[in-house]
Structures are given as structure tokens and as C-alpha cells.
Amino acid sequence: YHVCGGSLITPTKILTAAHCVTHRFEVRLGMHNQNSNKNDAEQTHSVSKIKIHEDYNWKSIENDLAILTLDVPVTYTDKVSPICLVPSCFDGADQTVTAMGWGHTTDGGQNSHVLRHTDLTVVNNEQCKIAVQNKYLADSALCAYAEGRDTCQNDSGGPLVLEYPEDTKCRFKQIGVVSYGDVCASGTPGVYAKVASFVPWVEEMAQL
């Protein structure tokens, strides 16, 4: 049963949300279709180690990042390859970005059987604080919004990416990790862990 997403950043490391890693699970890669009985994943791996960010706060959901270590390295294919991370100086305000996942297609509904994606626009944090009614929104958070479109339950941990069509080595770079939101697609931005704020930590933990 699908409960969270993640992104491959090295042959043995998965970047996901800290609030996702509360139980035992396996990691499926190269998958597009999935339901309760079967899936088309190219590779399935067990997790040998979980590293949750030291400053993760489960009440405020700040620093909502974790890195999973897989039992054995993945094999890179045309469907399984690592994503690049944006640099720590990256801002991203007003950029068009893409979120993806197999999460609920409506608030409180059911998971999607296929990988879905949607384009959103990054909202600056001052506007986001007003929209989500949280004046304490951390600088390490990133918000994204589009009318009628959003991430939803069970999309957590998945990537928010920015496309660089001219970059043949890193066409997509990850700028966020799905963290939390209000009622899905209800008119308020979704909140993501801002990858740029955590690049040194990710590089150290993943030995990049």
C-alpha cells in the first residue's frame, strides 16, 4: 500500500519526509502503475537505515526531511536514475515547478493508480505566512500553489522539481520535499521542505 514518495539521490540513498518514516516499508523504483495487488516497479528494495533530520519537529513539522539507506545499490536504467539538487543559494520565488506522486486525487479520497504530476508556482514565504495563517513559517519551508491543483495525502516525501531543458546532465532539479498542507486544493499553498536550506546536511548524510 502506497503511503509516501521519495527521490533517489545516490545509488543507495532516498530523500523523503521525516514524518513518513514511522513504520516499516519497502522502496519501489521505476514504477508508474500501482494498486493494492500489483505494480510495475522495476526494482524493489528494503531499507537498512533511516536518518531523520536532527532538528525535525513533529509538532510544527519543521525540518521535515529524512534519508533512507537501501539494502543494496539500485541499478540505473532509463526509468531509474538519481535527481540533482538545487544549490543552497537557490531561491525559486515565482518559478513554475512540478509536483508528483500517487497520493489521493481528492482530499480524504483514494490513492491514484498511476503516477500523476501537476505544475505549481512557488509563493514567497511572506505571502505564504498570510495564506496558511502561520506567522512562524520557517525560512527552511517553501510554498507552492495553483488554483484547483495541489499535492494531497500520501504524496508526502515526494519531490517538487524545476526543469532545466537545456541541461543534459540534470534536466530536473529538486527544490522541495512534500511536507504538509490544508485541505487539498482548497485555495491555500502546499508547504514543502526547502531543499536549498538543507543541501549541506543532505550532502553530508548521503555522502555526495
UniProtKB/TrEMBL annotation:
Molecular-function GO terms, alphabetical: serine-type endopeptidase activity
Pfam families: Trypsin (PF00089)
Keyword Hydrolase: yes
Keywords noted in UniProt: Disulfide bond, Hydrolase, Protease, Secreted, Serine protease, Signal, Zymogen
GO cellular component: extracellular region
Superkingdom assignment: Eukaryota
Annotated Peptidase S1 domain residues: 1-207
InterPro entries in the record: Peptidase_S1_PA, Peptidase_S1_PA_chymotrypsin, Peptidase_S1A, Trypsin_dom, TRYPSIN_HIS
Example of a GO biological process term: proteolysis
SMART domains the record matches: Tryp_SPc
Protein's cellular compartments: Secreted
UniProt protein name: Peptidase S1 domain-containing protein
Species: Daphnia pulex (Water flea)
Taxonomic lineage: Eukaryota, Metazoa, Ecdysozoa, Arthropoda, Crustacea
